[in-house]
Amino acid sequence: MNAPFSPGRGFQDPVLGPQAVFRSVLSAMSRPGNIAPVPDAGVEGPAAAPQEVLAILLALCDHETPVWLDAALRNAIAPWLAFHANCPIVDDPARAAFGVLRACAGNPPLSAFAAGEERYPDRSTTLIVLAENLTTGASLFLEGPGIESRARIAPAGLPDGFVAQAQANRDLYPRGLDFLLFAERGICGLPRSTRIFTEVR
Amino acid sequence: MYVAVKGGEAAIAATHDLVAEARRGDRSVPELKVAQIREQMKLAVARVMNEGSLYDEDLAALALKQSQGDAVEAAFLMRAYRTTLPRFGSSSPLDTSGMAIRRRISAAFKDLPGGQVLGPTYDYTHRLFDWTLAEDGEARIAVPEADAPLADNMPRVPDILGDEGLMEPEAAPAGDPAPADITRDPAQFPAGRDARLQMLARGDEGFLLGLAYSVQRGFGGNHPFAGEIRMGEVPVRFHPEELGFEIELGDVTLTECQMINQFTGSSETPPQFTRGYGVCFGQSERKAMSMAIIDRALKTRELGEEAAYPAQQEEFVLYHCDTIEASGFVEHLKLPHYVDFQGELELIRKIRREQDEQRARMAAEPEGAEA
Q1: Of A104-113, A158-167, B93-102, B255-264, which range is least confident?
Q2: How far apart are alpha carbons A197 and A142 in whole angstroms?
Q3: Of A89, A52, A55, A41, whose CA–CA distance to A69 is shortest?
């Protein structure tokens, strides 16, 4: 073991904290392309991950939701996550209910994660995808449920090949993965129903 | 023809104020404290914890205060709150053989190891009012300490019978799978015993009591014996993965009842006693006993008996025993059904009109004019 384990803090209010964070995730998923701020619910954990992402994991995960993390992130936050949420951490992306994807070497392809079943398309992985920001990257144009006509985001620092794979993910509908892009304290939902274009049609 | 109701929101807001006023009652009377309910109405608190499916005496006491003592309304508050709590994991199975006994009796065996410990029970009261309780002032309580502590060894009675091979063994299903969790996956029928016991544990005490009574009166059963009833504190233990060992989280008060029933045996198995099991939070003997009687009644499938009576019919018992579901559906009748009812009204008027017209037509036809 490296440094002694520090539990940091879970939610300031164990009922209202997760409710508020869930609300912002719900808002992000309902209105893809809109940036929903993640409220400060008092969660404090290892600095290796954005504190808002840790708060989202605490709000959504429990002892029945396996989580996938890349190796470095796992070393940094798995003990903290186990202490606060008791969620299983899995190696196999296909078994993950949630995951955190960052731009780093050795990421599995999105097809390795769970895309759900015909009868239960919801039994799929929801990925929190970390970006540097949502404004200076190449434009992505979004259409679909929850978007009035078209929305635009410009995420920078996404994992390699993410956009192309996310577009391919749309073909699996109603199966498929769902994504929450995170940057600078805000989240942008990309549910499987959203169509992603790299140029205006 | 939907009639819009004006001012609805204001009226609804006013109901909250009226409830607050009704709840407070006469202002010259001191307001109830949650701690008073928790300490001095422990049996009501136990019922609310059971039917609310949540062990928290303070919350249950608050629920009773908030609902003016309506146990069903209080249980509803507990259930709703339960859904907001983070799910951290499952404790290790509670070991009631290690209970810190406060009450332990058997109607089947007079002399049992550890003895009969009567404990705090209403069984021997004469059901006469104690007027001293109506006076203000401190209650006079004098419980002398016993000469010796209770026996360490208080084995469970069915275990004693089991050693002789006379009792239907209680064995985990092959592979010892995790028990069903009815709060995650709705029970499907036929239901496994784990799901049945969970549903009974949170079931309405009155409904289960009535059904248990029906079993005893002959509607489904065999005459049960109270093999053992025990009440006391049991530690709750949890095994965090990162620690690698079990830790104790605290105690809960449980009441456990084991009913012993007859079984005639078959060509394969010699006659043996069968079990009924009941367990619940707090001191809730009537509930634990009713639950145990019905647990046995619902074993018809496993024991090859015919399910002839309501208490033996799984779907009837388990669908209707949940307090919150039952009160929800019964009380939903108060919601507007104006359109449905309008439809019924039109229909009944139309049928009567047509019948009147038919009668008038037949009366107008000359006699003997048949086609």
Answers
A1: B255-264
A2: 6
A3: A89
| Digit-coded pLDDT (tens) for A31-78 | 999 999 999 999 999 999 999 999 999 999 999 999 999 999 999 999
Q: In residues, how long is chain B?
A: 371
Q: Evaluate whether A122 touches A147 at the Cβ level (below 8 Å).
A: no
User: In angstroms, rounded to a whole number, what is the distance separating the alpha carbons of residues B347 and B28?
Assistant: 55
Cβ neighbours of A63 in B, within 8 Å: 87-90
With a threshold of 0.85, tell me whether the complex ipTM lies above it.
no
Task: Collect all residues of chain A within an 8 Å Cβ-Cβ radius of residue B238.
Answer: none
CA distance B45 to B223: 31
- From start to end of A32-110, where are the E strands? 35-37, 67-69, 89-90, 98-101
Q: How far apart are CA A85 and CA A87, in angstroms?
A: 5
Average pLDDT, integer, range B33-53: 98
Sign for the CA dihedral angle at B141, B146, B151, B157 comes to: negative
Distance from CA of A186 to the nearest CA of B (A): 24
Chain A residues closer than 8 Å to B86 by CB = 14, 18, 58, 62, 85
Contact residues, chain B to chain A, C-beta under 8 Å: 81, 84-90, 184, 240-242
Instruction: Give the C-alpha separation, B275 to B297, whole Å.
Output: 10
